[in-house]
Amino acid sequence: MERLFQILAVILAGVAAYLYWVGNNDWFFLSAVAGSVSFFLSIRFQVKDRLKIREAERLAAEDVQD
Q1: What is the pLDDT of residue 62?
Q2: What's the pTM?
Q3: Alpha-carbon span 39 to 14, nearest angstrom
Q4: Residue 3: exposed, middle, or buried by beta-carbon count in 10 A (0-12, 13-18, 19+)?
Q5: 3 state SS of 42
């Protein structure tokens, strides 16, 4: 899922650059915001997965100590 958001962010950044170049500022702003949201959603999914792994490692370490 994170890869999908990364690809979407890159595509929307390209679209935003093109729209800025042709002078369509309204759609430029919309695509730039959508690209930023996609980028940060990809970061969120990465962090969420890492937190799950750390929690599992912590629980496994607690089970070993008991």
Answers
A1: 82
A2: 0.80
A3: 13
A4: exposed
A5: helix
Please tell me the predicted confidence (pLDDT) of residue 61. 86
Would you say 35 and 13 are in contact if contact means Cβ atoms under 8 Å apart? yes
Give how far the C-alpha of residue 12 lies from the chain's centroid of Cα atoms, to the nearest Å: 13
Express each pLDDT in 14-42 by its tens digit. Answer: 999 999 999 999 999 999 999 999 999 99
Burial of 43 (0-12, 13-18, 19+ CB in 10 A): middle
Structure tokens at 58: 């912590």
Identify residue 14 by its one-letter amino acid code.
G
Token pair in block for residue 23: 């002078």
Tokens coding 15: 């679209």
